[in-house]
Amino acid sequence: MSRRRKSTPTYRFHKPSSQAVCDFYDPLTGVKRTVCLGHFDSPESRKEHARICAEVAGGRSGHSSGLSMNELMLAYLRFADGYFVKDGRKTDEIDCIKSVIRVVREVYGHTPVAEFGPVLT
Question: Which of 93, 97, 76 is nearest to 84 (CA)?
Answer without folding.
Answer: 93
